[in-house]
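Q: What would this complex look like in 3D?
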Amino acid sequence: MSAEATVELIRVRYGETDQMGHAYYANYLYWFEQARGAWCRARGFNYSDIEKLGILMPVVEVHARYRGEVHYDDAIEVKVWAGEIKRAAIKFDYEIRVQGREGVVTEGYSWHVFMSPETRKAITLPSEIREWMTRSPYPNSENMA
Amino acid sequence: MSAEATVELIRVRYGETDQMGHAYYANYLYWFEQARGAWCRARGFNYSDIEKLGILMPVVEVHARYRGEVHYDDAIEVKVWAGEIKRAAIKFDYEIRVQGREGVVTEGYSWHVFMSPETRKAITLPSEIREWMTRSPYPNSENMA
Amino acid sequence: MSAEATVELIRVRYGETDQMGHAYYANYLYWFEQARGAWCRARGFNYSDIEKLGILMPVVEVHARYRGEVHYDDAIEVKVWAGEIKRAAIKFDYEIRVQGREGVVTEGYSWHVFMSPETRKAITLPSEIREWMTRSPYPNSENMA
Amino acid sequence: MSAEATVELIRVRYGETDQMGHAYYANYLYWFEQARGAWCRARGFNYSDIEKLGILMPVVEVHARYRGEVHYDDAIEVKVWAGEIKRAAIKFDYEIRVQGREGVVTEGYSWHVFMSPETRKAITLPSEIREWMTRSPYPNSENMA
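A: Here is my prediction, written as structure tokens for the whole assembly.
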């Protein structure tokens, strides 16, 4: 299995700040999700392709540790990789850096189960999608936000 | 047709503010929507009931005029009424007040078309739902946020 | 120290759902925050009062476990209590239930540090605010959303 | 005055969809704002620079007309230009297209006043900032999301 990371570049929106003057804590979960989408595209598929094949991937657990502040207009790099892939679940790990600043400002992870949209129950990941998720990212994977 | 208004009480969230120190302009559209939901419940149905009957009500136009600031923890009253009901569209009007303060801080409207989820095309509003939308609100309509 | 809980009632917004048909995972963090605000009010102060006294309470860690689905228009009860209060940090615990349904659908916690807005550094919680946070909730604490 | 447009490329997030299966109407206002930020950067300054000079630009009016649907993972182009600049106010116009699809899916405008953060009152735009806002975009303005 390849745990190679994908990095997604995101510009922090004004509406993502709060009156404390930095990014509100819930927005990091949107950024994690955007990075997961980029992680898929870097491997040649879209998250929508998974849904079209009848697999939903709801989050069952999320954790984030906020070490530093992220501000409006910061260009942040969200690094994401598959930390673990089980029969019916996948864990993504995240690290967020601010361009031009040292160190990781936020780190986190999320666990997702593979679920049937009809039964709303966990299902074993089909081998085709497993192959997608364990392949290496393509060398020239475009990284448009 | 009854254009009687429903008033929904909302407490402004911290995450709805931005670094300017007041509520970010997009959040008013969430509040409008929450008030539309209350408007339905005051008339004895849920917006979900409409969807269950095969009618979606996507917004096709929205307008808001921001006259005053709304802050964190403000208790706001979102007044909503059906300004116009056409064969295949409905207009909602809104006025937002802050409890304990004079005057309207924001006013707006939104136009929604009645749409089939299958064809994604506009459809004539079934008379049953039209009756729901034109009835007066129930006297003791509960107003839980 | 009193770890008595406060329960905040929230109606799930349409804009809080995603195309999977249930509430998007980031919104729970908004609900946690709204419940923290209610927790303060139940003890006779507003979160803003803390800020006015020169204390910010940024989140440094958050965790959520999603056990069941939450849908549009669900009336959810967000139970919050102070699980731990340290010299310069506080932990809130959360449990979310859906009215009319059995069991906890989501549980989580968040850690917040007490921070000076000027130095952006952790500070010891002033005893006045500590007293606010450790008192019991008022018997008739209003619970307006 | 130059009304040359800037185009910002945005990838629609999963959390920006709702259970109707397309982007929720409030998110377009976030996209408008992100495009305004890009419009500033294309002219050699950041929106933050304006705030640092003591000018806030709160929205006083917004309008959007939704003509077509925008879906998860769509790559959208948000075109923004200054439709009008008055002594103490500026109007931005917007057009949103989906890459690979014909036509404008959404159009809108927003009016912003120039406001002092201290007095919270409208002020005349300083000539330095007026010059920034009326200059042509730089030829190689980077367009990172």
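A: To summarize the key features: Residues 27-42 of chain C form the longest helix (16 residues). Chain C has three helices and five strands.
Q: Very helpful, thank you.
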